[in-house]
Amino acid sequence: MATLTRQLANSIKVQLNLNFFRPNSTATKLVYAEHGDPIKVVHTANEPIPKPKDDEVVIKMLAAPVNPADINTIQGKYPSRPPLPAVPGNEGVGEVVSVGQGVNDLKEGDRVVPLVNALGTWRTHTVVSKNNVLKVPKKLGLVEAATLTVNPCTAFRMLRDFVDLKPGDTVIQNGANSACGQNVIQICRAWGLRSVNIVRDRAGIDELRCFLQNLGANHVLTEEELRKTEIFKSGKLEKPKLALNCVGGQNALEVMRHLDKGGTMVTYGGMSREPVTVPTSALIFKDLRIRGFWMTDWTKQNADSVDRFEMFEELISMMTTNELQGPAFKMVSFEQYKEALMNTMTIKGMIGKKYILEFK
Amino acid sequence: MATLTRQLANSIKVQLNLNFFRPNSTATKLVYAEHGDPIKVVHTANEPIPKPKDDEVVIKMLAAPVNPADINTIQGKYPSRPPLPAVPGNEGVGEVVSVGQGVNDLKEGDRVVPLVNALGTWRTHTVVSKNNVLKVPKKLGLVEAATLTVNPCTAFRMLRDFVDLKPGDTVIQNGANSACGQNVIQICRAWGLRSVNIVRDRAGIDELRCFLQNLGANHVLTEEELRKTEIFKSGKLEKPKLALNCVGGQNALEVMRHLDKGGTMVTYGGMSREPVTVPTSALIFKDLRIRGFWMTDWTKQNADSVDRFEMFEELISMMTTNELQGPAFKMVSFEQYKEALMNTMTIKGMIGKKYILEFK
């Protein structure tokens, strides 16, 4: 007994000396071992927090959103399939609580967001390579940090990479009230682009219109208004060179009709569950270009690119100067994750508040 | 009477001295003053052949094809609408019969093809700026010259401008037996590209398969065979980076399914009269790029480009070495133009012989 206690005491002493690790520290994580209904297949599990290796950091998660893509990943309906068992969660913000011996550029107390896909952010603590996280300033809001790497980046890249837009140029988008759409509106405002924003007619349309205009939307039109609009005929507004589509079907077709000759439509979602239909004449005689965008793939292709870090810098700068707001959200405690899952699963058309898990 | 005769004689003498013009020389042309059924709205007319101005040349047409786009233009169903009254005909080959004083680079007897769209080639003679025609070698066959500027150029540009193809890369196309499709097959062979060619099942499919294979087709598949094909799974054939579509609808969708990640489909026709439908997931997760091509527009944008004259040179070289054959054709005399119109109007799916008007 005495011997065992002494061994334990020595072991604790070594760890304390190294100042890396609090003994008996335990992480709680969500995990799924098979694809299926998230409410059924996701459960909690505890695990000891390992000591960080040389280039590793231990991160205490602060907040992690529940995105529709997280739900699809758990259901096995998403092209990204992390090996099972897997911890869900692709985005989030955490605080560094200890660092490995080889880590100089991060220290305890730093705030970080994931730099890689499918890090598994729905857990109280995680130990990752220092290269897998990006330090963000503390003045960046918790919600903005937790939701930095998907929607704002998607909006940024779609506005930057497909068409060479100049201030004064017009961009049209459907699903304009989606989380990504709100980012598009604000980045357009910041870059001097004029945005035409299509939303479905609904109860409270005036309120929504007002909300989007406050974000910087130049025009907000319902699908029906788009059909009859004269805004591109008056000559006051250039025809759009870029259309962003997260709806598909008839709505995408209506949006496409307003594109300028040689214009590009970029699809990043398909809320109507209908494909994108392109008239042959629009391809041949109007030279429309139909593309798609997937942030996950862009991240893989551009993991260490200058473009990527310049994008983070510009987005964070816009967020800290309030040019770019985070999404409408509801914080729930990590323990209430089922509420967050349920509500995200029943969101219709990406409308509504984003659920964010908060870790105490 | 005597005075009048003398005046006339002097006038004739002046013209003869200038050596530009044979008096009483009359051109016959086809003309339409309104859009409609080509058989009804197109009629013949005679006109004196004017004297060429400084930079002009008088061309005696030798042969001019009747293309489906010519029919659509007369019907008013084509986006190109020459001012009325108009002489139909977009392609052809002629012989220079006289040149203006400022013309040094063309001489009597030279063979030329139009360098501009909608020149109006369905006439015995035309007077145009020397800049509007391209001299072609006499060893170039009459049919090849008369049909140089649309189908071979369309095939060339689609294989050159959308995807950076390397020898060994695969190209897939539907409507492979179309005039353009036959050019695609032969240019692929010349450039070391492997072509997968989709055709509709039909009586005489074996003969057609053999014909296309003789042109250089690596694979010829019916639409049904395409659905079940294993050729891309065996690993022997790379997945196509480029698909060429002149059909649309379900057929285009089946072809699209075989494209490699990041691959491009270029639409240049829509024989099924159905639009191009693209699954949202193919755009987002497979990064497919859906484009269109219209030779008329390319010509406008690149009228004086180096690319254009290099293309003509390469195509003519391929034609004179028999690497690239002209289309199956039927020559009819200019007087029989109604037969050519009728037959071109009833061609189903661009299959069959191209009618070429021959001028005596």
Describe what is shown at a glance.
Two copies of one chain form a homodimer. Chain A is of the alpha/beta class.
Topology at a glance:
2 copies of one chain form a homodimer.
Chain A: H1 2-18, E1 26-32, H2 38-41, E2 42-48, E3 56-66, H3 68-75, E4 93-99, E5 111-114, E6 125-129, E7 133-136, H4 142-146, H5 151-161, E8 170-173, H6 179-191, E9 194-199, H7 205-215, E10 219-222, H8 223-228, E11 242-245, H9 249-257, E12 264-267, E13 276-278, H10 280-284, E14 289-292, H11 295-301, H12 306-320, E15 329-333, H13 337-345, E16 354-358
Parallel strand pairs in A: 8-9, 8-11, 9-10, 11-12, 12-14, 15-16
Antiparallel strand pairs in A: 1-2, 3-4, 3-6, 3-16, 4-5, 5-7
Report on the architecture of this protein.
2 copies of one chain form a homodimer. The first copy, chain A, is of the alpha/beta class and 360 residues long. Helices cover 33% and strands 23% of the residues of chain A. Chain A folds into 2 domains: 2-147 and 327-358, Quinone Oxidoreductase, Chain A, domain 1, CATH 3.90.180.10; 151-295, Rossmann fold. In chain A, the strands form 3 sheets. In chain A, strands 3, 4, 5, 6, 7, 15 and 16 form a 7-stranded mixed beta sheet that branches. In chain A, strands 10-9-8-11-12-14 form a 6-stranded parallel beta sheet, with helices on both faces. In chain A, strands 1-2 form a two-stranded antiparallel ribbon. In chain A, strand 11 (242-245), helix 9 (249-257) and strand 12 form a beta-alpha-beta unit. The longest helix of chain A is centred in the N-terminal third of the chain and has 17 residues, at 2-18. The two termini of chain A are 37 Å apart. In chain A, 45% of the residues are buried. The interface between A and B is medium-sized, with 27 and 27 residues. Strand 13 of chain A pairs antiparallel with strand 13 of chain B, so a sheet runs across the interface. Chains A, B: This is Enoyl-[acyl-carrier-protein] reductase, mitochondrial. Chains A, B: One of its GO terms (biological process) is fatty acid biosynthetic process. Chains A, B: Keywords: Fatty acid biosynthesis, Fatty acid metabolism, Lipid biosynthesis, Lipid metabolism, Mitochondrion, NADP, Oxidoreductase, Transit peptide.
